[in-house]
Amino acid sequence: MARAIEHAFDTGEHLLVQAGTGTGKSLGYLAPALAHLHENPRGRVIVATATLALQAQLANSDIPAALDAAEKVTGRRATAAILKGRTNYACLHRAIEGTGAEQDSLLGGEVLAEGLRSAKADTASVIGAEVVALREWVQTELDADGAGDRDDAPTHTAAAWAQVSVPVRECLGQQCAFFEACFVERSRETARNSQLVVTNHALLAIDAMHGNSVLPEHDFLVIDEAHELTSRVTGAASHELSPQQVERVARRCLPLLDDDDLAVEFLDLGDALQQALDEAPLERIEDPDSPLIPVLQRIREVSRAVVSELKGDDPDRKQAAAAAKEVFDVAEAMAALKPTDVLWVSERERFGRWLVVAPLDVAGLLREGVLSNTTTVLTSATLKLGGDFESIASSVGLHRGDRLLDTEPEEPTGLEWRALDVGSPFDYARQGILYVAQHLPNPGRDGIGPEALAEVAELVWAAGGRTLGLFASQRNAEAAARHCRTELPKMTILCQGDAQLSELTRRFIDEPETSLFGTLSLWQGVDVPGDTCQLVIIDKIPFPRPDEPLLQARQKAVAQAGGNGFMAVAATHAALLLAQGSGRLIRRLSDRGVVAVLDPRLRKARYGSFLRASMPGFWSTTDREVAVNALRRLAGD
What we know:
Elements: H1 2-11, E1 14-18, H2 25-39, E2 45-49, H3 52-74, E3 80-82, H4 92-97, H5 101-106, H6 118-143, H7 158-161, H8 183-192, E4 196-200, H9 201-209, E5 220-223, H10 229-237, E6 239-241, H11 243-253, H12 260-279, H13 292-309, H14 315-336, E7 341-348, E8 352-359, H15 363-371, E9 375-380, H16 390-395, E10 403-404, E11 416-421, H17 428-431, E12 432-436, H18 450-463, E13 467-470, H19 474-487, E14 493-495, H20 501-510, E15 515-518, H21 520-525, E16 535-538, H22 549-560, H23 565-582, E17 593-597, H24 601-604, H25 608-613, E18 619-621, H26 624-636
Parallel strand pairs: 1-9, 1-11, 2-4, 2-5, 3-4, 5-9, 10-11, 12-17, 12-18, 13-15, 13-16, 14-15, 16-17
Antiparallel strand pairs: 6-8, 7-8
C-alpha cells in the first residue's frame, strides 16, 4: 500500500486502495506522506477522515506514532495540525459579549414567558448553567492560549454550545473585536504553517463548494474511510428549512427592523410555511405549481428585504442579517426546483415537518472541486462492491471513460486512476461462517416475522449470548429483544434505546455473554474484538427505504441515462452496509464466529451474488444446523 501511494505521488495518478481491518491502513498512507514531506519540507499533505472521532484518533494516536518513527529515521520531525469546521470552535465574541434574548432566557433572565411550562423552564435552567460553565471555560482557554476546541470543553448539550459558537455566515471576520485572538483563525494559521493537516470530509466538501478557499494549499490529499465520502459530501451540500427556523430568525430580526410591516410579515411566514407543509405529501416536490413554491418565493423576497434593511456595521445587525441571508439562500435554492437538486418534505416526530434540498449527484462536485486539482488517494476497508471498484469510483467522479490504468483502454481520456486491494491479514474462510437462512420467508413490510424471531432466539442460544444484532429498523430490534428476553430469560439482551449507546456498548464489551441489538449506528460504529462477539445477526438486506426521495431520484436519474438504477443506487447502498456490518465479526487474528443473514434473497435473488461479493470471504452455508453447531462449539470453548 505504501509503495502504491508513493507511486501515485510520483506520477500524479489517483489511487483507490482497499485495505482490510488489521492492515495498519493509517500507517500505510502516513509513511509515504511523511517521506514526501521529508524530501519537500515546504510541501503539505492533507488527510480527510469521515468523522471528528476518526480525526481525533489520527491526531492523538496514529500520527504521533508515525512522527516519532519518522523522526528516528530522518532526524527531522514534520509538523502536524487538526483543522475542523468553524462551529467546532468557541466564538469569543459570542461567548464573552453575547447578550441576545435567546441567551438571556437560557441564563434565567426576564425573557422567559410567564406561561412557560415548568419542564421547559427547567430545561432552560440546565442549559443556562451549561452556558455559564462554557463561558468560563472559553475565558480560561483565551487566557491560556488554548485551542477553544469543543472536544476539550466541559460537558454540554448542543443547545448550550450554540450559545458560544457561530455558524460561518454570522462570523464578523476582521471587523470582530476578537479577530486577533480568534480560535478559528488560530487553527487556520496553524494549519497553514503545518506540513500534515488532518481534516474531515465535510470540510473537504465545503472547500470544494467554495472554490478551494477553505483548506490550505496542498500537494496531495488522502481520503480515509472513503466509502462514506459521498454521503458526507451530500450532507454538507444539503440544506433544510423549517417553520421553526423562519420564526426564530424573524424574532431575532424583529427588534432591529424599522419597518414594522416587514417584521410582522417575516414572522407570519413561519406559520404560512407550516400550513403549506401540513397540506403537502411526504415526498419529492417536482411540480412548479405545488402550493409550497409560492410560500418559498415569498420567504425569499421578504428575507431579501430584511437583509437589505439590516445593513450596517453594528455586530448584532450584521449577525441577524447573516441569519436572514441564510434563509434567503435556502428558500431561493428550493424555489428554483433545479433538475440537479432534489427537494422534498420530511418529517420527524419531535419537530414536525420541514423541507430538505440536496444535490442529485455529488460526483461532479468531487471531480471538479477535488480530483481535478490534487492527486488523491482514497482508502477504506470497503471500496470493492460486487467484486470491483467501479461503483465507488463512479460515485466520487471517476467514470468509466477515464483511464483506469489497470485496464489500459486504447484511447484513454479523463483522469488517470488505479485501484488496489491490499487484502487482509485475516483468513476469513477459516475464521468465519456466512450462514444465509434460505428456508425463511422473504422479509415483509410489517416488521420482523415469527419465523425470523424464532431463528434469532435459537442462534443467540447456541452462541451463549455473544451476539451483535444488526436490524433494519428500531421496531425490528425491539421486537427481537422482547422475544429473546421471553425465550431466553437467563440471558442479558441489550437493545439500542435502553440507555446511551456508549453505555450499552461498554456493557456489551465488558460482559461477554451479553447480546446487543440495534440499528444503523451499530452497523459501522462498533469495534468489538474477541469472545464478546461471536455471532452477528443481520435480519434483512439493508436496502434504502423505497420512499426515500433522494435515493429514489438518484435511481430514476440512472435509469433515464440508460443504466440500472436499482443496482447503481439501492443495491450499492445495501452492499456497502452489508460489508460494514458483516465486518464487525472478525477484528483480530484469533476471532472466530458466524454471520447469520436471515434474508433468503441474499441467496435466491439475482442481485444476491453482487451483495455476497461485497462481504468478507467467509465459508458459506445455508444449513442452520451447521451454524448452530459451530456456535455451540465456540461457546463451549
